[in-house]
UniProtKB/TrEMBL annotation:
It holds the Pfam family HTH_23. InterPro entries: Homeodomain-like_sf, Winged_HTH_dom. It comes from the Bacteria. This is Transposase. It comes from Microbispora cellulosiformans. Residues 97-155 form the Winged helix-turn helix domain.
């Protein structure tokens, strides 16, 4: 729920929290302690203490919500729609030979299409916001020969590994041999 709707709190949730802070300010004005306010509004004592200190230094105006947190998205709605379209086209349409969208590749596509730079972490947040996820590439060599690997495991590995002792009862310690 958090990522597809843009993350963070909605405007209504921010307004509700602001109202709680204002009610707490009224209780502080009545002489309530941090512990009393924390218990009454079901918040931590640390939050109540922070509200009281903010109220003392900046007044009630300092308790007003400052709006949605986080950085502003560098892409507008039309650009986000174009980015989703580019992602749906697939990596091969953008010059890569496999079907794997990595964060670095998506950052490169964003740079090409919109002349905007995103960090790999920023691309990850942006993808979650759009409801997408990145894909980790499979690190296998193109020259890998599965038949040769299986043959080596069957023929060479037992020779390298050596023979095993029987499953007879024994002790792993060299100084204490097993009893018959």
């Amino acid at each position: 729920m958090r990522y597809p709707d843009g993350g963070g709190l909605t405007a209504e949730q921010r307004l509700r929290r602001e109202q709680v802070r204002m009610q707490a300010a009224d209780r502080f004005a009545d002489g309530a302690s941090d512990a009393q306010v924390a218990g009454e509004f079901r918040v931590s004592r640390m939050s109540a203490n922070r509200w009281r200190r903010t109220l003392e230094t900046g007044g009630r105006e300092a308790l007003v919500s400052k709006g949605a947190g986080g950085a502003v998205c560098k892409l507008d709605d039309a650009q986000l729609a174009r980015l989703e379209q580019a992602l749906e086209e697939g990596p091969t349409a953008h010059g890569w030979d496999d079907q794997c969208w990595t964060l670095a590749r998506i950052a490169e596509v964003i740079g090409r299409l919109f002349r905007v730079s995103y960090t790999v972490g920023g691309v990850c947040y942006l993808l979650h916001r759009l409801g997408w996820s990145w894909q980790a590439p499979c690190r296998r060599a193109a020259e890998r020969d599965e038949k040769a690997i299986a043959a080596w495991k069957d023929e060479q590995w037992p020779i390298i590994k050596g023979w095993r002792r029987s499953r007879a009862r024994g002790c792993a310690s060299r100084t204490r041999p097993a009893r018959p």
